Amino acid sequence: MYKLSSLDPRTKIVIVIAVSTAAMTVGNIFFLAGLFVFTELLMLLGGIGPAVQLRQAKGAVGLVVFLFVLQALFGRWILGAMLCIRLLIVIMSALILMTGAVRDYLLGLVQMKIPYEIAYMVMIGLHFFPLLKEEALDVYYSIQLRGVEVRKAPLPEKLRLYARICFPVLAGALGRTKDMSISMETRRFRAYSRRTYMRKLVLRRADKILMIVFPLLCAAFIAAGCGAFSRAPSSAAASPANVPSGIILTWTGDPASTQTVNWKGSGGKEYVRYASVTAFRACGRFTSEAKGKAVKVTSGDYYRYSAELSGLKKDTEYVYSVGAGHRWSGRHVFRTETGGTFSFMSLGDVQYQLRDRDYGVWGDMISSAYKKNSDIRFALSMGDMVDKNADIRDWKAFFRNADDVFTAIPLMPTSGNHEISVTPYTYKQMFDLPKNGPSGLKEEVYSFDYGSCHFVSLNSGIFMNERRLAMGEKSWHAMIRKTDSWLANDLQKSTAKYKIVYMHHPAYPVAEDKPNVQLYRNIRKNWVPIFEDTGVKLVQNGHQHVYMRTKKISGIIYMTADSGQKISRYYRSGDSIPSYVKKLSTVNSTYEIYKVNADNMQVTAYDAEGKIVDTFTVK
After folding, report:
1. Which residue spans of the chain are classified as CATH 3.60.21.10?
2. What are residue 447's phi and psi, to 5 degrees?
3. 558 C-beta neighbours (distance < 10 Å), count
4. DSSP classification of residue 291
5. Are residues 271 and 291 in contact, defined by beta-carbon separation less than 8 angstroms?
6. H-helix or E-strand containing 357?
7. pTM for this prediction
8. 338-618 has which fold?
9. Over the stretch 69-128, which tens digit does the pLDDT of each residue have?
């Protein structure tokens, strides 16, 4: 059996560099855990027992635990665990160097053609730090012997005592630094081009094999570890300002063969690189590229990009990254339409009372919902994703808290009144959406199919007074007639088993607030008859900041959703409610999960803690 202490010092240096490089390069927690086990076995089989490891590493254990707790407090459990495992691997591998004589490392480095000055400094360092530790302990014990219990002292006294420890150690360090500089001078650095040594290290066969095997193992480990990825691996770390961010998936084409990627970029040329997961794992690189189309958002120097990936295979996972040059996002994974049995999610208003606080609560909720329901294939938004339609700070906060989920599944939104200033102008710059709606209302009104469902997104804001006044009565009425005609035709020609409509304002509100009474009536007058005539099963909306479900009205269930923290001003506990209300909940932050199969669609509403608020079935 080999012993680490018997290996050539150059072999040990190569082993430590290989193991440390692998630990610092790979960003997959499972691979890091495997490397940790491998390093532990390497130490144990090499004659470094657990007791020796603990004795040498005990000073770093407190730091490792502190870093993990610090990351955990901010909800970054995986990042904290990865950081701790990395540190432990580096510390443990460094113990390999402690199994040899310091002079041998100097000789080994020189024979590896490392400049003598650097090799000598490494040797000094290996001597230097243990001596500092010993000096610190000597001062510490001398204080203890004087009758002062450092650990039990009050904090101010403890700080003074530690200062008494540090100053002598610092003075000693300065003295040793002076001695080292004198030592270097006496050795006549650079005085001679060559040096002679009394002995020369000779690599044995085992050393040569290990010096070849470990770099190869390191390269293979890095290639495998960097090729492994989770659904959204980049969410653990903050991206630099110049790296693309705000990545959101939508669809502009067939969900079975296309995927549209939206992101915030720099203003120059940027791209989406992508490949099927199978191809990426086989060759370790992206196989295709799509150029992003950039739009400068009116407010500020903010550029929004989109690119449609086409020619994709149905029910297939793809990995992608966005950016250009040296500025690329992390890798993310999406799956094309699966068909058959599937699930999706719906979200009501995200609109906040305190921006940073409430978006954070919302982001935690949808991340938790996605983890608990990993078969979700996409999500619908009922609008009011922001409070101020043109405030880039709102949009940044929304995207920042949404990317844990919507880098992996598409978000198909509809515009709410808080995305509208006459028209939802900024909203349309932020998302690239299907353009199959009526002329003049592209992306405000659209439809798409997924599996056995046909979805229609309507901008109920076209009934708002601001739009009518801006357009003039004649043009406004013409737009309404055109929208009605498109809606009837779109729903009539669909043969989907489930026809679902979603919009922001309700047809059947929990309370008819005065400013919107006419708007609600216009929806019931213009669109509800079309829903009833074309076989719509479910109509969803937001706006009123409550969860509400109606009884079946002419065969249709109307549902109001709310996912944000803003308290409802439309309904107060104890207010009378309309007779058509079947279920009402005023709990803040809810989301709905829809499980679609051949026989029915099961709908379950949850609160932020995952407790069931309501459940019903659409047959």
Report:
1. 338-618
2. -145, 160
3. 24
4. E
5. yes
6. helix 355-372
7. 0.64
8. Purple Acid Phosphatase; chain A, domain 2 (3.60.21)
9. 766 665 556 667 777 787 777 777 777 777 766 667 667 666 676 666 666 666 666 555
